[in-house]
Amino acid sequence: MKLFATLRFKILLSYVLVVLFALSVTAFFLDRSLEKHALQDLHSSIGIQAGLIAAQLDLARLEKEDTPYLDAFVTKSGRITGSRVTVVSASGRVLGDSQQSYTEILKMENHLNRPEIIKASGHEAASVTRYSHTLKKEMLYLAVPVRDGQRVAGFVRLAIPMARVKRVMSSLRRTIIFSFLISALFALATGWLVVWLTAAPFGEIISGSKRFASGDFTCRIPLRSSGELRELAETLNSMAAEISRRMREAELRRLELEAAFRDMSEAIVVTDGAGVVTRMNPRAELLMKARGMNVPGMRLTDISVVPGLAEAALKALSGGSQVSREIESEAGLVLSVIASPIKENGGVGGCVLVARDITEPRRLENMRREFVANVSHELKTPLTAIRGCAETLLNGAFEDKESGPAFARTIHEQAVRLDNLVNDILKISYAESGRAVLERSVFQLKDLAVDSVRAVKTLFEKKQIDFTEEVPGGLVVNADRDKIFQVMINLLHNAAKFSREKGSVKISAIDLGREVKVTVEDSGSGIPETHLPRIFERFYRVDKARSRELGGTGLGLSIVKHLVELHGGHAGVESVVAQGSKFWFVLPK
Questions:
Q1: CATH architecture, range 264-357
Q2: CA atoms within 13 A on the CB side of 244
Q3: What is the pLDDT of residues 379-421, one digit of tens each?
Q4: Where in 101-182 does DSSP place strands (E)?
Q5: Which of 320, 371, 377, 514 is the most buried (most CB within 10 A)?
């Protein structure tokens, strides 16, 4: 059945049907034409024979009805022509018959009413095909008049059995049929050859098209044919090359988009029009705690652990417009969420939800605002004191020898405080900017500790603080000596400021293998536990009034933290109220 549906079979069948129809029509008309011409030739031949026989007939004997003569004459003529020859008188009496005896002739009916005789009475030859009651068979009769001048003296009739005529026609038909079969077979063979030569390129084109349809655009259809088939093959090859090129470009774009979708820092979720998740990038899986879950096919409301995400997507789907909002999760994350509807055929076919973590920018923004506020507040106090003292001096206190110098000292002290504050702000800004460069060198921590103690020795002596240095000799680090010196100065300075009179301060260090830990311990009032997590923040003070009274800027510990972290280390604090504090930092060797 598959063969019958092929183009090759259809072409061959059409060709064969056309050829058979053409041959059949030709054979039909040829048969009719040959039959007509054969009958005409037969009539002409019989007519000529009858005319010759009539010309040889002795009219005198015919008129005398010389039966013996006429019987012998027709017998001889019938033997020569191979036909039945009959001589009939003008009155219709049969005078001689080549196939009947004299006795039988006498018994024969009058032939004057025979159709051929009636037609021949008009002085012309006449032929009729009819059944012979005498011979009991169908015969072809042809009668010619025998003239005596203008008078019909009798008739000569020739008869041929139709069976002989039919045999001749059958022979002709067999020849026609044989020729028809030979022509049909030749046409079939020719048609098959033509179809095979024509269909072979079609087969290659179909095979190539199937490979194109299966996605194999590397194959090419051979260009063996010519004309339209060659143009078709060239067009399909060109189409395959173009599709292959475009598919490579599309695949490259897909990989680029897939990489961007996978590696983006933003959480991206794609849903259909019903809010069912179709895609989700790894960042979104982490944000929604959906790692290991078969997310595609789940509703966003079933997996969203961040309040507001699903609501934003559903609002975009229902409203058909973009939704933007900021959401804060229970974990403290601040997310900037944008839900954009996907328009499809005039409706909403889905939604793209993008959530960006802006926790750090918000924290930095808050820190910036807090820093500005703190700096403004810290600057306001000394500036107010300086302005007040300056105005007092300008109003006449400058001439007062007792209070004038006191106001001038206050201005000087507040100016020094401003200078320290500005310097500390510049130091921490430089440390946080990322532009700070470490000038590393190898040095012993004990030597640095001794130099640091010497720098704050005056403060220790003023408060009669008992100082102990327990840094082991030979403990070497590779670091920026000036920056670590500043760290130690800040910690020792704080320890001295916040220790009670006649208290104690100790600096020590221990080797941790790849790191060293330096600790500065004081016997001050200690720090409440609630303040410990924020103690290294800029401008953070446990006791603000006392800190300002002691001239602190609130930036010392923040500077310590950033300088230590710049070296790849970390700093910390341990404190017990009324027992003192331990500030420490750890540095890689």
A1: 2-Layer Sandwich (3.30)
A2: 15
A3: 776 777 777 777 777 777 666 666 677 777 777 777 777 776 6
A4: 126-132, 137-148, 151-161
A5: 371
